[in-house]
């Protein structure tokens, strides 16, 4: 018997978030039901980060205990055969008892994809955010620099957030344009509830010319959620990658590989 880690991806538009709920229309409930059938016993899981309704995952990580020894490929193929098409195990790896999907994580990376176009697209509906107003990349990149490092992110924290502290460290925040798509990449030690969607809303205000880049720095200092921009839609948000110490030996595909394999629709420059 051992502890197993699984890499999981899912289309969050079909689900009411990750965390188990009484109605059982969540990713966790559906994954655990498939695991219970695969293992012929109830199988609880622990995840790296709980995603909200409509939020997707390219690289969610979960762990589970008390698993029988099987070929790793059998875990992937066998569990996926019991899952709906909107959820898929990408890899499986045996890990030591010291590994914990949440507490062993060094950082988490989210990607937000915004499509900038005059008219909405039904083809990528639910998979990207949409902005039809003029959008300027450079001011958003300037504003993003204010968010790097350790800060009190109270101005970007949901009122329902249960975290003990609003202090987080932003390691990376990059914004690039690929044709009609703006790609936001955010990597931090951890994120507060709705923090990414609140940051995207504020950065888009800057990109639309509604606020100057320095406004982001002012919001950080004010520590008041009421003064910031509205929470942006969940559609374009992806939990892209969770980083762990190398000693655990987990698969670690690059962000570029993940992006190309799952989000090829916005990979071409123009």
Give structural notes.
- By secondary structure, the protein is of the alpha+beta class.
- It folds into two domains: 2-104 and 244-263, Pseudouridine synthase I, catalytic domain, N-terminal subdomain (Alpha-Beta Plaits); 110-238, 2-Layer Sandwich (Alpha-Beta Plaits), CATH 3.30.70.
- 22% of the residues lie in helices and 28% in strands.
- It has six helices and ten strands; from the N terminus they run E-H-E-E-H-E-E-E-H-E-E-E-H-H-E-H.
- It has helices at 27-39, 72-80, 137-144, 195-207, 214-222, 255-262; strands at residues 2-10, 46-47, 56-67, 87-95, 107-116, 129-131, 149-152, 167-178, 181-188, 237-243.
- Strands 1, 2, 3, 4, 5, 6, 7, 8, 9 and 10 form a ten-stranded mixed β-sheet that branches.
- Strand 8 (167-178) and strand 9 form a beta hairpin.
- Helix 1 crosses helix 2 (72-80) and helix 3 packs across helix 4 (195-207).
- The radius of gyration is 19 Å and the shape is globular.
């Amino acid at each position: 018997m051992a502890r197993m880690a699984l890499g999981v991806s899912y289309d969050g538009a079909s689900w009411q978030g990750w965390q188990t709920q009484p109605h059982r229309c969540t990713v966790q409930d559906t994954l655990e039901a498939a695991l219970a059938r695969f293992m012929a016993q109830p199988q609880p899981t622990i995840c790296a980060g709980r995603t909200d309704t409509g939020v997707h995952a390219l690289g969610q990580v979960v762990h589970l205990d008390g698993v029988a020894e099987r070929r790793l490929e059998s875990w992937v193929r066998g569990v996926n055969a019991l899952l709906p098409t909107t959820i898929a195990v990408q890899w499986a790896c045996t890990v030591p008892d010291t590994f914990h999907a949440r507490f062993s994580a060094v950082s988490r990376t989210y990607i937000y994809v915004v499509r900038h176009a005059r008219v909405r697209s039904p083809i990528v509906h639910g998979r990207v955010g949409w902005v039809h107003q003029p959008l300027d990349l450079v001011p958003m990149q300037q504003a993003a620099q204010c968010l790097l490092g350790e800060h009190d992110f109270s101005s970007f924290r949901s009122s329902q957030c249960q975290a003990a502290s609003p202090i987080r460290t932003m390691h990376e925040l990059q914004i690039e344009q690929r044709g009609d798509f703006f790609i936001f990449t955010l990597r931090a030690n951890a994120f507060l509830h709705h923090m990414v969607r609140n940051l995207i809303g504020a950065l888009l205000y800057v990109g639309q010319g509604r606020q100057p880049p320095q406004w982001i720095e002012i919001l950080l200092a004010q520590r008041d959620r009421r003064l910031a921009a509205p929470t942006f839609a969940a559609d374009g948000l992806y939990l892209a990658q969770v980083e762990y110490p190398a000693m655990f030996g987990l698969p670690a595909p690059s962000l570029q590989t993940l992006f190309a394999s799952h989000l090829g629709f916005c990979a071409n420059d123009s």
